[in-house]
Amino acid sequence: MPVDRSEGDVNHGPRRARWAGDGVGPRSRALVERDAAAFLKQSLSTPCLSAVRKAEGIWIEDMDGRRFMDFHGNSVHHIGYAHPRLVAALKAQLDELTFAPRRFACEAAAELAERLTANAPTGPDSRVLFAPGGSEAIEIALKIARVATGRFKTVSFWDAFHGAGFGAVSVGGEAVFRSHGIGPLLPGAEHVAPFACSRCAYGFPSRSGAPDLDACKMACARMVRYALEKEGDVAAVVAEPIRAVPYVPPPGFWPAVRQACNEAGALLIFDEIPTGLGKTGALYSHEPFGAAPDILVLGKALGGAMLPLAAVIARAGLDVAGDRALGHYTHEKNPLLARAGLTTLDIIADEGLVERAADLGGHARARLDDMAAHDSGIAEVRGAGLLLGVEFVTPDGAPDNDRAEATLYAALARGLSLKVNMGSVLTLSPPLTIPRADLDRALDILDDARRETASGA
Questions:
Q1: Sign of dihedral through CA atoms 101, 106, 108, 109?
Q2: Among 31, 232, 290, 296, which is most exposed with the fewest C-beta within 10 angstroms?
Q3: CB atoms within 10 A of CB 182
């Protein structure tokens, strides 16, 4: 449960020390120490704050029996942890077929490919490739764009996260992945400021986080067009349609970018690795915004919080690299991974989880808005569905990183695990299966935690 700052930073300060001393039991602490002695250290996952022995539904339980509602989950737990239907499906698949060597088809992989392309937002006759993780899937998408356009440049956004591989880091925009001696990244990876209406990089005002479109005239979208026109030979724009921070785009943003891509001959790649498959109250997070991608990348929740699986879905006309190896991964068509994806899609559909995320998200948003109305330190509540963020500011309007972190630890002490993004934004991302009563219980905990930090207790 590390504290995330951009995609996140681990806090090594006094609050973490207090948590390690007071919030972690002896069995958990012993395993954390074993972990620290065995693994290479890296930002965002070192040091661990506790040790998990069980994950079920919305809950994680540490080695000492302490339980936490998990509103972080690394964005994989849309269907909750250890969903019994998925457990049963994987056990059955183990008895049927456990592996398919490359160049051999298997039924589960073919069925998943058919399912993902049947009604794909990329249109009829779409095609798919699977990868063992989202970073690899992004890099497959980049290769397709290069081959299809004959170009190599990209335009993407500062502060974005697209994965940890060199290609994914190159198009990503987080300093913690791009700096500290990592060295030169991919050439031609250009960046522009992201849409962030409450923190507009272009200096335009907003009204309680809502864009003042009369003033800004969507400067963020106009800058994408400007970059495409100035570069002149861009292969693709790579973007999160809803940023996992979270930030929701201003009205008209994606249609304007889509039009700019069309005119520049660039593809539009949507990264929905953390936000797709229902999290935002739509099956695909870009759907409400009136623009479809050329390539859609899914991951994280596709494996049902059990197995690593990502997918690249490309529109008709992009099946242009039959003589090249785009992915060629050992587990490219693994039947266990495919069964996890199929069963996860079934659960999302059969349990109405997309609609549930929209309904529960509206309920949670109303409660968070009420908290903000009574707390001058909350600048904005934003998000969509069950991906919501609460941004803390100081009295002079600066990001209040200290309060966000203090609120996270106060919630953690009460049994709720959250995430901090960009230093000052508490992000809530619960499973879509969460009972309403548990959602309210978690919001009660958050309300108590923010009261505690507001009072300085």
A1: positive
A2: 232
A3: 10
The token pair that represents 318 in the structure block: 């992009």
In a domain, 179, yes or no: yes
Q: Which helix (H) or strand (E) holds 189?
A: strand 189-192
Residue 127 lies in a domain: yes
Collapsing DSSP to helix, strand or coil, 315 comes out as coil
Predicted model pTM = 0.95
pLDDT number for residue 123: 94
C-alpha to C-alpha distance for 70 and 51, rounded to whole angstroms: 14
Distance between CA 158 and CA 442 in Å, rounded?
Answer: 32
Q: Is residue 311 in some structural domain? A: yes
Does residue 339 surpass a pLDDT of 70? yes
Q: Beta-carbon neighbour count of residue 391 at 10 Å?
A: 25
How far CA 255 is from CA of 221, 231, 384, 413, in Å, comes to 9, 20, 19, 44
Q: Does 84 map to a domain?
A: no
Strand order in the sheet with 425-428: 378-384, 387-392, 425-428, 419-421
Q: Considering only CA atoms, which of 307, 253, 237, 233 is closest in space to residue 76?
A: 307
**pLDDT tens-digit profile of 44-100?**
777 888 999 999 999 999 999 999 999 999 999 999 999 999 999 999 999 999 999
Structure tokens at 43: 């930002």
* Per-residue model confidence (pLDDT) at position 206: 80
Q: The CATH number of the domain where 180 resides is what?
A: 3.40.640.10
DSSP 56: E
* Both tokens assigned to 377: 């330190």
- Overall number of domains in the chain: 1
Residue 196's domain comprises 100-350
What mean pLDDT is predicted for residues 151-164?
96
Which residues, in sequence order, are CB contacts of 402 under 8 Å at separation 6+?
Answer: none
Half-sphere exposure of 218 (CA within 13 A, CB side): 14
Q: How far apart are CA 281 and CA 232, in angstroms?
A: 36
Answer for the pair 452, 416: CB distance below 8 angstroms, yes or no. Answer: no
* Residue 413, φ and ψ in degrees, nearest 5: -65, -25
Q: Does the structure show a pLDDT above 60 at 11?
A: no
Question: Any bridge partners for residue 340, and if so which?
Answer: none
